[in-house]
Amino acid sequence: MSGNIFTFQDYKSTPDPFYEANVEYLHPSPVPIIIDNGSFQTRAGWACDSGELSAPRLQFKSVAARSRGAARSETQIGNDIPNLEPLRWLLKSQFDRNVVVNFEIQELMFDHVFAHLGIATEGRVEHPVVLTEAPCNPLHCRQMMSELLFECYGVPQISYGIDSLFGFYLNNKQRGVDRPQTGLVISSGYHCSHVLPVIDGRLDAVNCKRMNVGGSHAASYLQRLLQLKYPGQLPALTLSRMEELLHQHSYIASDYQQELEKWRSPEFYEQEVHRIQLPFSAKQASATAVGAEERQERRANQLRRLQEINARRREEKIQQDQERLDNLLAVQELLEDGLVDQFQRRLVELNMDSAEELQSYIHKLGMNLEISRHRSLQEGQDSRAEALDFDQPLEEGDGGGDPDSELREENTEVERSVNLSQPVLKLAEYHQLYVGTERLRAPEIVFQPSMIGEDQMGLIETVQFVLDRYTPEQQGALVENVFLTGGNLLYPGLQDRVESEMLAIRPFQSYFKVRLASRPAVDAWYGAREWTLQHPPGAEGWISRQDYEEKGGEYLSEHCASNIFIPMTISRPTQRANEVASGTELTLPADSLQTAGAVAETMDTTLACDTTVSFSHTRKASPTTQSSTHALLNT
């Protein structure tokens, strides 16, 4: 069968080296540390513009594994785990989707990063830190992150930014555009995908949208497809191998339905199917094939011994039946000789009632003996005939009169060698995965989440939903700069698919431009480095220790690649609130419902930006106060 045959690489990670931080990293001013805190991989390095330090020094998966009861120092981080599959059930991440919620694991990640970067300062990290965070990150999560970095590590300054906006910033710089840009950023990561509108260089957080579909869902979907297709190869279909299939063998179809129709053609299938050879030992298979003749001969010997045992047992049974028949005939002769009393006594001993029963039993026993002797004689003749047939070629070969005997022997040897190699090929084919339509079905879930049971809009429907919130002029400005980034958008054909889908939803003859990031998976880190070089610590976008102490841990200094900061506001008690607390009856004005609607609208906007509001109570309300409050809310 034609087609390419591939093998799994089964990459084994090696532990990250421990680098040494040079003295010039601290003097005359500390060099910032760039950390792309991704849900799939963490990348960390220095904000340097030249040399090997201009690339991430560390790049590892954002997972940790620690056995129960093990010490903290025994925790394995990222590349310290050579093979994830045996420890899959022990793996933990600091993320819930794309939001950091497990700060114990996050602290382990920071320990790993700072230790391997060579931070040797005692008790604190004297370098500013640039850290990526999720779009519309909840204030509580940012507060916990700032508290961890300022209180635990003692960093002097922090700057938060969105990974996809850092990539947007970098690619605009590479195009020679320095002014604030308007564009539509489409990013897809390991757990989520986002559509982020940027107006005049700042994120429009109110109109951001998130899809809970990412690379992890595509890998899991591909795994389920192949498990249903190859139920006998379940142990070989690991999640790590599915990720490898996604990255190296999958593609996005420009038209999904038309592409599926092409796969109906046998010629197209033969040309495009990828055969993945699973781990298989041909040497072991050859040894198995060589020993097949020995096993067959051993089986023949066992069969021959069984036949001999059965023949011996049959002879013994025939002999026993013959002796019993002779005894019965002797009893019958007693009746013929007129010895009736002796005959009756023998019948009682034989547990028989009459002479007719004795005669019937003698007849049946005689017939059985005749059949057994005939069967034994027939088997003996068959075995002698087989022996003669087996010996006949030997007699002809020994005579030397047949001129073709040597040729037949050579042909027999050739056929034997061919037969030994055939099982190896067949066994190798049994260990192959034929990846056909799965190559385009797995990544298609970004455009059709319903394929995996997700009740969500697809990527293009989400884009259209976001665009509909703007005026036609703003829509035109947004679609002139559609930017694609993220590790889950590395599939071949993705840009063509987005362009064709955008052409379908945009007005006739309208202009739009779709650009793919230069390095979709790592542009976030390089963009953060570029931003740091242009905005050194102390400039706009940095949070100092003083800001943290005065404005709170949730404070965010905004910049072109950051979230929008919406502070937590807690209103002071008014006279009306004091009257409610004291239980005094109140009369609601006519415009109270409008006021309540405005408050509800404000709360909806706050929740849309993922802002967390907390309240503190100085005393517990009395039952009278509670009932009055409930009556007011019901009114």
UniProtKB/TrEMBL annotation:
Region ranges (Disordered): 376-415, 615-635
Q: Mind telling me which GO cellular component terms the entry cites? A: nucleus
Localization:
Nucleus
Superkingdom of the source species = Eukaryota
Gene3D superfamilies for the chain: 3.30.420.40, Actin, Chain A, domain 4 (3.90.640.10)
Compositional bias of kind Basic and acidic residues: 376-387, 405-415
Keyword presence, Repeat = no
Name where it mostly resides: nucleus
Q: Which InterPro entries match?
A: Actin, Actin_CS, ATPase_NBD
Coiled coil spans:
292-331
Q: CDD domains this protein is in?
A: ASKHA_NBD_Arp5 (cd10211)
- Subunit-level organization: Polymerization of globular actin (G-actin) leads to a structural filament (F-actin) in the form of a two-stranded helix. Each actin can bind to 4 others.
Q: Return the similarity comment.
A: Belongs to the actin family. ARP5 subfamily.
Please give the name of this protein: Actin-related protein 5
Which species expresses this protein natively? Coilia grayii
